[in-house]
Design brief:
By secondary structure, this protein is an alpha/beta fold. Strands 3-2-1-4-5-6-7 form a seven-stranded parallel sheet, with helices on both faces. Helices cover about 50% and strands about 15% of the residues. The chain starts with 5 loop residues before the first strand and ends with a helix. α1 packs across α8 and α4 runs parallel beside α5. It is globular.
């Protein structure tokens, strides 16, 4: 198992995390699939052939808990001779609807999962990533961001806030960890066909629709895993690419007006 490059995926039991695990296993990687959903991880293993199962390690991970992170990373790297080439900080949750209509506790939990999870995972994985940085496959972190990190989204206010935080730490660590040869990037899709968008209460999802699949994101993450340039943000899908491009060219008043129209 140690000859192949190694990826650790948080939130791997369903949706984007599961699709990414399947993609990397199909491409010959060692995959650490960790989640709080044990049943989902067991179901993932049933979709693999015998050879792929030899390259899969699964385990429980609560991304809001530092000790859980450390145990999960120690467990996975014990199967890879200490190797960790890629950390995919994928785990995330969502609450939608007017800010005042969601409980404060539910929105604070969202921050804990979406932001604390990325912070703790990146911090605790760094020693392993430094060791892998000079290897053939290098070392990198890919964070799950979102098109909602382009401009703050009504009815997704706290989710959008969490993804701005992810965008910020991605940009900062990509510069800070460059001397260690650890590349840091984020993937920025619009709405993806997962359970997270089921019954979402936001005007933007009604206007823009749900056009991306988890497999679309997995394919992008796989491309990012082999990228050697300086690019940091990876929008997925034409809509997101147009939105990100327009945000760089448009004055603030026009971005605000556009987002008001998209989300009403």
């Amino acid at each position: 198992m140690t000859a192949a490059p190694a990826i650790f995926i948080s939130g791997a039991a369903a949706g984007i995390g599961k699709a990414t695990a399947l993609k990397f296993l199909a491409e010959g990687w060692c995959v650490g699939a960790y989640d709080v959903d044990r049943e989902g991880l067991a179901a993932l293993a049933t979709e693999l052939n015998e050879e792929q199962r030899t390259r899969l390690v699964t385990g429980e991970l609560d991304v809001t808990n530092n000790e859980s992170w450390q145990q999960a990373l120690t467990d996975f790297t014990s199967h890879t001779d200490g190797k960790l080439n890629l950390l995919f900080n994928n785990a995330g949750i969502l609450c939608s609807g007017p800010f005042a209509d969601n409980t404060l506790e539910s929105q604070q939990k969202l921050i804990d999962v979406n932001v604390q999870g990325v912070l703790a995972g990146s911090y605790l994985a760094l020693p392993y990533l430094k060791q892998a940085a000079t290897s053939e496959h290098g070392a990198r972190v890919i964070n799950m961001s979102s098109a909602s990190a382009i401009y703050g989204q009504p009815s997704l206010a706290v989710y959008s806030t969490s993804k701005f935080a992810v965008r910020g730490i991605t940009e900062a660590l990509d510069l800070e960890w460059a001397p260690h040869s650890v590349k840091v990037m984020d993937v920025m899709p619009l709405f993806v066909r997962t359970r997270m968008v089921t019954n979402m209460d936001a005007g933007s999802v009604k206007r823009l629709g749900v056009r991306l699949t988890p497999e679309d994101i997995a394919a992008t993450v796989y491309k990012m895993a082999h990228y050697r340039g300086s690019r940091v943000h990876w929008p997925v899908g034409l809509q997101t690419k147009l939105m990100l491009g327009a945000s760089k060219l448009s004055p603030n008043w026009l971005k605000r007006l556009t987002n008001r129209w998209l989300t009403r």
